[in-house]
Amino acid sequence: MKIIKPRILKGTRDFMPNQMIYRDFVMSKLKTVFEKYGYEPLATPAIEYFDVLSGKYGDEVEMLLYRLAYRDGRTLALKYDLTVPLSRVVAMNPDIVKPVFKRYQIQPVWRAEKPQKGRYREFTQCDVDAVGSASVLVDAEIIAIINEMMVSLGFQNFEIKINNRKILDGIAEYAGVSDKSKLVCRCIDKLEKIGVEGVKDELEERDIPPNAIDKIFTILSLRSKVGLDTTREKEATLNAIEERLKEFDNPRQGVDELRQINDSLKCLGVPDANYSFDICLARGLDYYTGPIFEVVVKEANIGSLVGGGRWDTLIGQFTGREIPAVGTSFGLERLIDAMGMLSLLPPGQTKVQALVAPFNEDLMMQALTYVSQLRAADIKAEIYFEPDSIRNTMGYANRKGIPIVVIVAPDELQEGKVAVRNMQMKRQEKVDIANFVTRVREILTDENT
Known about the structure:
Shape: elongated
CATH superfamily of the largest domain: Bira Bifunctional Protein, Domain 2
Structural class: alpha+beta
Number of strands: 16
CATH topology of the largest domain: BirA Bifunctional Protein, domain 2
Mean pLDDT: 90
Distance between the termini: 55 Å
CATH class of the largest domain: Alpha Beta
Number of domains: 2
Radius of gyration: 28 Å
Strand order of the largest sheet: 1-5-6-11-10-9-7-8
CATH architecture of the largest domain: 2-Layer Sandwich
């Protein structure tokens, strides 16, 4: 028989039970926040027609689509994100946006990029979007959701950066290259990665004239150098942008929208210190049309964790008419990686609360009875099916992090009792069989208080 070498594709991962517990913990927190704001779950297929996904992201992203050649000649693709599939759903179900469709989605996506720290070929993406409203109050609500989500997960030193694509379009117009606005945005988006000179070189390579590049960076220099955590600094930044680009309609509208967002965030209780207006924030995807935002966790050196913005024109590619939309998106794995770096993940290794361990095979039937009683009381219980030695049993419980072991042994049974061991406190006691379920619950309650 030929032995096949077990392996997985780079940039993909298996998630072992202890890792899945972390994932379930984080997803539960996320869903609680999303649903608190009235957003409901949605799921879409892994495979889409290629033409549904193609032409929505920009040339550079287009190269990252996983294409599938079907036997009848059709070209399919694995979904790159959850935004374009959402657009298709809305186009196929137009009545759901009356007056607004609020959904969240947590599903895997695939990207054919070079794997590196914090970047994967397959990962679980989390999206929250509102479709059908052009009001920037909805943009503010999405930002408030992001803020509450980060706080709920235990992050403290994070910053939500906010900008507006209309301001970036105004910068391109000011520089005399309005026909290359999307190109300019994609280059500015790389500022944190390749620096000022790197962006200038890339703009020059893309045939942006030197005088236009100088004008672009004249505006970008308005970026605050002292932090933007006060109302006064935020307003000063917006005033400076508005004054420099006052001849152009787009940036004036963009600044006004940011002012409305700023006022709304105050009403929504988002602290000043948790967000800033950053004129250098660009977000590389072509479909953004208005306010954009991303979250940076300052201690976790893996780049932006959360991104999003307004995308009012994308659905129109399916319907022939624009339907306004705004939302946020982030990778679950990168979020969990950052939480791990900051020790924000719970200590639990298992969901099992009690292990029932028969002393020998002869006591297996009684052990089955006792484990059933625990489960009937909604206690997550496992039975040790291979009784050998108490040492091995305890070693197994320790490795899995099971907090309680119920030992079914001949001597205790003769007394009408079982032995209940608290693994954390390293204490063992004899308990009447009639009361052992109650005692197990008491120990679990004490550990959780």
